[in-house]
Amino acid sequence: MTQVKVCKVFTFDAAHQLVGHQGKCANLHGHTYKLEVVAAGAPQGPDHPAEEGFVIDFGDLKQAVHALILSRFDHAFLAMGTEPALPALMATGSKVVRLGFRTTAENLAMYVCHRLRTAGLPVYAVRLWETPTSWAEVLAADIPPQGPTYRTVGGCDVDEDGD
Ligand SMILES: Nc1nc2c(c(=O)[nH]1)N=C([C@H](O)[C@H](O)COP(=O)(O)OP(=O)(O)OP(=O)(O)O)CN2
Ligand SMILES: [Zn+2]
To answer: Which segments of the protein form a coiled coil according to its record (predicted)?
Structure first.
């Protein structure tokens, strides 16, 4: 059966901070992220008894990505958990998502891809645009079933061994 890829594109606004980064992204700042979710599968056959010819209904994909990712990430501070501003933001009721990893485009793309796959979506790849000129992409097949290995240190946090 022919495999077909379909893609749904989303945007969300969020703040983050790469503590220890040796450049401007060490500051708390925001992005309008663009998220491309690519699903793959056979659009016809025994897995599709309704025979609409969909890999997945775009509407169902939209609903799932909103529920699993966008409702949490949009207008939130995406935090690793060690940012100096985090206690103040939480104390004042700001929307915060504690992720436990550095909020690089690479880590966030892996997180989104793994989250969608573990929810049962036929996700093939996730591409996350951090700015109009910068994106990170991950293939679901490259993430082990137990989940991604995230980078948790960086910039001035890196010791002599690079860990
Ligand atoms: N490989 C990565 N590099 C950088 C990341 C990242 O997540 N992965 N993140 C940042 C900053 O958070 C920020 O996104 C700055 O990125 P940059 O592309 O440098 O942003 P600009 O606004 O300068 O983009 P231009 O389009 O070039 O003006 C840094 N690096
Ligand atoms: Zn940034």
So the answer is: none
